[in-house]
Structure formats: structure tokens, C-alpha cells
Design brief:
By secondary structure, the chain is mainly alpha-helical. It has 21 helices and four strands.
């Protein structure tokens, strides 16, 4: 087992391109959606992200070398690792943006700092959950149906990732559909460009060419000059953030996202084992959690994860060196401020087809990786996420019309009646929006239990939903001048409804008989 082999070059281009897209998306969302100043993005968040990438990539490279030498093998591939795409979007749209809007509504003079603090707390919470999950991962995996976990991720992938970038692709069709053709052909058509050029690199290069040809690039603002931004601990800021109410306010996002990170990483470790590389589950998950904790301590709001695709990187010939090369390249970009120049020359549109593909793959996996009979449970698990995204889009539309913004009419409960006149049950969407990750998981898990005729287990999932509703972690919200936010108060009608639902399942054990269905 050697530190570098020829296949590490191919693996590096693929993994580095993936990480670069995440950094570009991260930067674009922080500056446009959240309105963070460049000093915060390039001086704190990116260096913190660089630290998290350094922690994981170096460990997994060392882990691969150790395994190869212990087993006297030269074909061990390091676990791929980087910023968690799903958490990136979830934290921006479900944690930091609501925190910013709430701060604006409250008259906070620095709403961007409030949003950053909320993100730091969420990232730290995810890391701590991942660390704890390294001890309990197997038990979590056994107790929760795969359909429930994957369906919840699929709902986020379909809405906040795929649909958002699909709309953007059709708003700029030449670059959007042109690069999408490359991605579909390479990844779904299972072909390779002559000369071994990575398909993702071709898509981004073509996207950049289209962007410059159509006037989308270069960026409107001149790139900031490259400057050294060494990572600096932000312990004081994190301490202030922990004294806020962010942990409780966004607990219904932080907890399930942390759990999903644990399960997702665990599944990727199992995928590596199926490819012949048997890594320690506990140490792999623990270092993944340390990467997220390190990110928060140094100013990044975005947790890391073990990526999917280990068998693919291994088939390319990548071993340990591709992780080291990725670490070096991402560190150089994050610590020198050169991402500003890259973002100026390479618009996010150039890589949006890759992000759209990621969303498609996550959604497709929810159906492909579960038993065929559990497909209805996946659909059930998609619905709360779709409702949550619909609520987000409805509120964004009101913001676009000037409502809920400084100088405009505030949000009030009268909006429920206004939407109702057009037969839009916005209150239901707003109820589902709060804690939709939890409700999606529970509804899908209960549906799996029903499909398996395990009615008592389905009832237990309903009891869990009732408890979460009674605690205010699901379906409870309050109006602010510019948003609707989680209210930690009992949602009694929904708690009672879940108990009624569970009671129906229990009665089903004695009041129903199995009906055999013809095989198809």
C-alpha cells in the first residue's frame, strides 16, 4: 500500500470537484440568501470549513493506509468525505434564514450575526450527535426502517435541492440544460469521455463556457484580492450563540439531521465493507463527528459527512492519496480567499447540474434501496417535506410582494383566511413545516409497520409523534412580522390526533383479517 498511485489523480478530480461545488453553493447561499458580509464568509466560515475538511480527509487517508498494511493489500480506498449537501441546504433554509428573518422582525441591528450564531449551534449539535451516534449507530439503524430515513432525505432532495435548481436551470436554459445533458449522460448513461476526463469536470467547464458566452459570467462584483485567512477559533461567538434560544428553537431540525448524518455515514461505511474495505464503524463515525465539531469551533455552520460513492472511487483506482490531494486543494482555497475569484469566474450555474443530479440520486435511492412493498411508505414520507417546501415558497412569494419586510404589511393569522378563499389550506402546510423531518420519518415508519402488519409497532410510532407534538417539536408555530416559526408549546389537537391514529392501528389487530393480494 503506497500513499500515492496513478488512480488517485482521477479520484482527486472527482472528489475535489464535488467539494468545490459545495463551497461554491455555500458561498452563494451565504452571500445572497443570508446576506452575510464577505468578511464573515471568507474570514470565518470558509476557514472553518477548511479545518473540517482537513480533519476528515487526513484521518481517512491514514485509516486506509493502516488497513492496507494490516491486511497486506494495495487496493484499499479511503472513505470519501466532505461537506454534507443535505445539511447545507437544511441549515440555510430551515435554521439560518428563519433566524435572520426573526432577528429582522425583532429589530436586531445585526440579523446576519444572529443567523450565523444559529448555524454554529446547529453545526455543533450535529457534530455532538454524530459523536454520540458512533456508540449507538447500529441500534439506531435496526430500530428505524430504511424507508423512513431515506424518504425524509428524499423529500429534502426533491424540494430544496432538485426543484430549486430545476427552476434555476429553466430560467437559464442554455447553461442549465446543456450541463444537465452531460451529467445525465455520464452518470445515468454510464459512459466515460475519451481520455478519461471526469464527466463532472466536463460539465463544469462547459457550464463556465456557456456562462461567459451568455453574459452570466463574470460576476457583477469584482473578486476580492487573495489574502491569507488562517483559521481562528470562534469560541467566544459560539459561547454567545449557545446562550441564545437557537438550540431549542431549531431542535426539530438539528436532531433529525444529526441522526440522518449518522445513518447516512453508517450506510456508506457498510458500502465500503461490501467493496472489500472493512473500516471500524465507531472510529469512522467519531471522526466524522469531530469534523463537524471542528467546523463549528472555527466558524463554519456546515457539518461534514462520509460521502456516497466509495465503490466508484475504488473502481477508478483511487486509494489513500486522493484524500490527501483533496485536503490540500480545499485547504488552499479556503485559507487564501481564492474562492472569491473562482466564484467570480465560475458562477453557481456552472455546477448546478451536479447539485441537481445529487438531489435526483438521493430521491431515487429512497425507492431503490428499500423493499418494493415499502414504496408507498416512501411516498408518505415525501409528503411532509413537500408541504414544508410549499409553505416556504408561499412565504417567499409574500416577501417578494413586500409583505413581511421592513416597510411592508406584517404577517398575521389573517393570511390563513386569505389563502383559504382560494382553497389553499395554508395552516396545514405551516403545521407540517414545523418539524417536517420528524413527522416525515414517523409517518413513513408507521406506514412500513402497517405494510408489514405490525400494528402495535405502528401504534408506538404514533405515540412518539403524539409526544413530540405535546412537547411542541412538531406542528406548533407562531406568527412573527415576517415569518412563522416553531413555538415550543403543546400542539394538543395534533397530539390527540396521533393518539387516535395509534388507537385505530391497535384495534386493527382484532378487527381486521389479512387479505392475500395477487402477486404482480
Amino acid at each position: 500500500m503506497r500513499w500515492f498511485v496513478r488512480g488517485d489523480i482521477d479520484g482527486f478530480f472527482g472528489l475535489a470537484l464535488d467539494n468545490l461545488v459545495q463551497l461554491l453553493v455555500l458561498t452563494a447561499l451565504c452571500t445572497t440568501v443570508l446576506g452575510f458580509p464577505p468578511s464573515l464568509v471568507f474570514g470565518r466560515i470558509l476557514p472553518g470549513a477548511g479545518i473540517s475538511l482537513l480533519i476528515g480527509n487526513l484521518f481517512y487517508a491514514w485509516q486506509a493506509m493502516r488497513l492496507g498494511r494490516a491486511e497486506n493489500r494495495a487496493d484499499v480506498c479511503a472513505l470519501p468525505y466532505g461537506i454534507n449537501t443535505v445539511s447545507l441546504f437544511a441549515y440555510v433554509f430551515l435554521v439560518m434564514l428563519p433566524a435572520k428573518l426573526a432577528a429582522q422582525a425583532a429589530g436586531d441591528p445585526d440579523p446576519a450575526r444572529a443567523a450565523w450564531h444559529a448555524g454554529l449551534v446547529a453545526c455543533l449539535g450535529a457534530g455532538l450527535i454524530e459523536l454520540a451516534g458512533s456508540l449507538l449507530a447500529e441500534r439506531i439503524r435496526r430500530s428505524t426502517p430504511r424507508a423512513a430515513l431515506l424518504a425524509t432525505l428524499a423529500s429534502i432532495a426533491l424540494t430544496f435541492i432538485s426543484l430549486g435548481f430545476l427552476l434555476r436551470s429553466y430560467a437559464r436554459p442554455v447553461i442549465g440544460l446543456g450541463t444537465l445533458a452531460i451529467i445525465l449522460m455520464v452518470y445515468f448513461g454510464r459512459v466515460r469521455f475519451r481520455g478519461g476526463v471526469p464527466g463532472g469536470l466536463v460539465a463544469v467547464a462547459l457550464g463556465v463556457a456557456f456562462a461567459w458566452a451568455t453574459g452570466i459570467a463574470p460576476g457583477a462584483a469584482a473578486p476580492a484580492p487573495a489574502a491569507l485567512h488562517l483559521p481562528v477559533p470562534v469560541v467566544g461567538e459560539l459561547w454567545d450563540a449557545l446562550h441564545g434560544n437557537y438550540a431549542l428553537t431549531y431542535f426539530s431540525v438539528i436532531l433529525p439531521m444529526g441522526l440522518f448524518n449518522v445513518i447516512g455515514s453508517l450506510q456508506n461505511i457498510e458500502s465500503a465493507q461490501a467493496a472489500g474495505d472493512r473500516y471500524s464503524t465507531r472510529s469512522s463515525l467519531a471522526v466524522n463527528g469531530l469534523g463537524s465539531v471542528g467546523a463549528a469551533l472555527f466558524g463554519s455552520c456546515f457539518p461534514t459527512t462520509i460521502y456516497i460513492g466509495h465503490p466508484g472511487w475504488k473502481a477508478l483506482g483511487a486509494r489513500a492519496g486522493y484524500s490527501v490531494l483533496n485536503c490540500a486543494a480545499m485547504g488552499l482555497i479556503c485559507f487564501t480567499g481564492t474562492l472569491s475569484a473562482i466564484a467570480w469566474a465560475v458562477p453557481i450555474d456552472a455546477g448546478m447540474a451536479i447539485v441537481l443530479w445529487i438531489g435526483i440520486v438521493i430521491a431515487a435511492q429512497a425507492f431503490q434501496a428499500v423493499p418494493r412493498a415499502h414504496a408507498p411508505a416512501v411516498v408518505v414520507g415525501l409528503l411532509p417535506g413537500l408541504a414544508g417546501w410549499s409553505a416556504f415558497m408561499a412565504k417567499s412569494g409574500l416577501h417578494a410582494a413586500g409583505m413581511g419586510l421592513p416597510g411592508g404589511a406584517p404577517f398575521t393569522a389573517d393570511l390563513v383566511g386569505a389563502f383559504g378563499r382560494f382553497d389553499i389550506w395554508i395552516d396545514g402546510a405551516l403545521r407540517l413545516e414545523q418539524g417536517f423531518i420528524l413527522s416525515a420519518t414517523i409517518l413513513a415508519a408507521a406506514t412500513v409497520a402497517v405494510i408489514e402488519r405490525q400494528f402495535a409497532r405502528a401504534a408506538l410510532w404514533c405515540v412518539a409523534a403524539a409526544a413530540l407534538s405535546a412537547l411542541g417539536l412538531m406542528h406548533s408555530y407562531e406568527w412573527t412580522p415576517g415569518d412563522t416559526v416553531l413555538k415550543l408549546a403543546p400542539a394538543w389537537p395534533w397530539a390527540i390526533a396521533y393518539l387516535v391514529m395509534g388507537g385505530c392501528f391497535l384495534l386493527g389487530r382484532w378487527l381486521t383479517v389479512p387479505v392475500d393480494t395477487p402477486e404482480k
